[in-house]
Design goal:
- By secondary structure, the chain is mainly α.
- It has one domain (2-241).
- Helix content is 74%, strand content 0%.
- The protein has 14 helices and no strands.
- The chain has helices spanning 2-14, 17-31, 40-56, 58-74, 80-91, 93-119, 122-126, 129-140, 142-151, 157-162, 171-181, 183-194, 196-204, 216-238.
- α6 (93-119) packs antiparallel against α11 (171-181).
- The two termini are 32 Å apart.
């Protein structure tokens, strides 16, 4: 009996292994203070060395950037905005934005799969009728829900990465909505980064003034962020207040 119980326990524990790896990795990253190497100050100090490396090894640098971005997102490390800005500075707004979208999609997919593997059926087994109806509505209109969540800052990025794992969203739908939905935000931050060099040059050319920090790229980028925020408010008051569909049998029980 004890052997059979142990045999049943091992597969149950194994399902939590991917999530455990993410949690342990995030803890170790903070223990070794890796977050200090992904700060804006560190990037500004090393920006010319990084730019020279990119100019000499653009393919290798691109692969490294995508890998770094994917790992950061997969381990829920809060440095995506800084890395996206750095990508716009190093690669230009277009290539930098594209690389950020690819890396973010890979990382988000990894943490989605880990959460689904560990907890995918937990909510549906224990949820009451109201949550079950919401889950069914999310599943039936998953692409639209995910696309809107990605386009607007209604919920934190990590929450949007993990939440679909509880609602039977297919991998294909998740990847497609994630890829398309994060394009505008990534491009805006990359555009901000592409204007960073000119802003720093303006500051270095003389006395520091507010006007020196404002470039065309940064103006457009900030306007883009404002537009996304306004869109988020509009959609929060319209799309997310739609009534959730009722179950087909008209009841809440199984």
């Amino acid at each position: 009996m004890k052997t059979q119980a142990s045999a049943r326990t091992r597969p149950q524990l194994a399902r939590y292994l991917p999530v455990a790896v993410i949690v342990v990795g995030l803890i170790l990253a903070y223990m070794f203070r890796l977050h200090t190497y992904l700060s804006l100050d560190v990037f500004l100090d090393s920006r010319e060395r990084l730019r020279n490396f990119v100019s000499l090894h653009v393919v290798l640098a691109s692969l490294g950037f995508v890998t770094l971005y994917a790992v950061l997102v997969a381990f829920a490390f809060p440095a995506a905005a800084i890395v996206t800005i750095a990508g716009g500075f190093l690669f230009g707004w277009l290539l930098g934005g594209v690389l950020a979208v690819i890396g973010a999609t890979i990382g988000a997919t990894a943490i989605f799969l880990a959460a689904r593997h560990a907890f995918g059926d937990l909510l549906r087994r224990r949820a009451g009728g109201a949550i079950r109806r919401f889950a069914d509505g999310f599943r039936d209109d998953a692409f639209a829900y995910l696309l809107v969540l990605r386009l607007t800052p209604v919920l934190p990025f990590l929450a949007v990465n993990v939440a679909p794992a509880f609602f039977e969203v297919s991998l294909r739908t998740y990847v497609a909505a994630t890829f398309l939905g994060i394009i505008p935000g990534a491009m805006v931050y990359a555009f901000l980064g592409s204007g960073l060099n000119q802003a720093l040059a303006n500051v270095a050319s003389g006395e520091v003034e507010i006007a020196n920090l404002v470039t065309t790229e940064m103006t457009i980028g900030l306007a883009g962020l404002a537009a996304l925020a306004i869109l988020g408010l509009i959609l929060k008051k319209t799309f997310f207040r739609r009534p959730t569909p009722a179950p087909l049998d008209g009841g809440e029980g199984d």
